Protein 1
Amino acid sequence: MIREVDSFKRYRDIMSAFDELNRLIEEEISRVIEDGAQRYRSEAFYEAVDASRNVESLRGIQKRLNGLRQEWEDTEEDGTEEDGTEEGGTEEDGAEEDGTEEPGPPRKRLPRGMRTPKSVFFRPILKTLVELGGAGQVHQILRGVHRRMAGVLREVDNEHLASTKRPRWETTARFARLMLVDSGMLKKRSPRGIWEITEQGRARVQ
């Protein structure tokens, strides 16, 4: 659980940093566009052309930044195997109560793009919770998510992880749940073993 939460916090913090940089670049682009328009109205045509070139340069930087953001996100998606337990897990849901696990083969890093991204799980989780009346036990939700994603999940998603004895897609879904909680779409303090949707989450799937 601790490693999973720490991994998610790192993911969130770095993604937030990318988003903040993107916002600042967008603000600068707007400023340069306005400056160029003013110079054009003042018939300072050379300066207006320079402003236009600066906008093109900033757009190029923004595009490269977004490429780096996607590259890092892909690395996080495909280069980590999260531990499957989470706050609110129960023995019924597959958690190991004694904290032990049988030794297994060393984990192998998945090639980039093989696993279904966490973000793809957001809507199925929210839709399943709405279908269940707003809340449900983890095993109910995972069953509904699996049904909704039957045509989406890849072969690698159905492989069982030695560390959790669960299929990979379940671990990804649990990690996606943490992201939905952090974004305000699922409740933070639900009863143990229960996931609950918020009004914001309902609005997302309406």
Protein 2
Amino acid sequence: MSNDLKEYEEKTLEDIKHKDKRGNEFWYARELQKIFEYTDWKKFESVIKKAIRTCKLSKLNEYDHFKMISTKRKQKDYKLSRYACYIIVQNADPKYKKVAEAQTYIATQTRKRELIEQYENAGYMGLYNGQTKEDISKRKGLKNNENIMNKNELAANIFRISLTEELLKKQENIDETEITKIHYKVGKVIRETIEELGTTLPEDLPTPKKSRKTKKVR
């Protein structure tokens, strides 16, 4: 990551973050306007309105993310969620340096999340005979990609993750495709070992009922 992106990550949003009495974080649109170097409020508000439309198209409640308020000077402003800040950035004009930096940062972070999900699913697919994390959650009747496991299933997954990490540490100049293959291979080898031993495969193990003591893997 470039120095500009590091600076954005560490300062841009965190420096102007506020918290309400309940500890919920929020941002003021007029402060964000200054960060992104918009001198005209009307132009920046047009970006906010585009972001609100994006929020609606995503079938999210706009009022959870954009709350219109009035400043002490009787100026129009908005209290924004972190998600609102992100979609404002995505709708802003990249001709402004800070906007361009922010858009690059968000694209970079999005790609990182995609890769983490890709690697995670590769490991699951190896261990669960082709099933992704979402497939496993649906099969168990769980929501939000939860994966509740009993102790044997949890142990197999912890071993899979630990062994994968050890193998990756030994690799040099490895690309995304090879990393994905290693995640899958480790899961598959553990599955084959379970089959050879004649013990129960992870997808055939019972799912424990939810409780405070239940182990979850995300």
Protein 3
Amino acid sequence: MPPSARCRPVAAAVCDTRIVEDDIPPAPPPPRRTGRIVVRVIAGLAALCALYVGVTFVQVWRATTVDERRPVDAIVVLGAAQYDGQPSPVFEARLRQANQLFADGYADVIVTTGSNQLGDRFTEGFAGYDFLRDLGVPDESLLVVVDGSNTWEQLTATVAVLDARAMNSVLLVSDPYHSYRAELMADAVGLEAYSSPADVDSSVRQLVRETAAVSVGRLLGFRRISNLT
């Protein structure tokens, strides 16, 4: 048999093998696990953030329903708007609450706080002092703190005044929606603080806004937030 005839079957087999190999599709690429991990991490962080904000909202809301009145060294009225020496309705409600706590014997001293806005003739602290004096609170039971245009600054100034008199425990009087954040700030500046909010309503908008303020403040620090505002 000629040599060429002996090679033909082998060549054909090689050709057939190449054809079969060429017909096999390439293996699919491995799944992209990195992308899935990133998605899961982002979803987990979003769930944690939602839980954190949700818990904070409940804490802010719950504080609106609680009155922690008890005997303390001083009653601290957080400042609010005043108009040429006349407390706004919100501020007046706080001052009347403080006056009632004083009359009921929960403290012998009331501290009124708050500075003035640009162009104002009177400070919030002095307007509160004047209002309470007209209600019959004696001068010796009133302390006026006129430093501070926000809650953190007011409480920082207040703790200095109270420390000089060896006082530390306080009842904070503010709006209900503001009670939780005010207590957190008071604790941060070193006061033993409890809340006895004014008898006013809190709207959903106020609760949501306060939830945002508490959520950010606890993460970044209330002092830092105060310095930025």
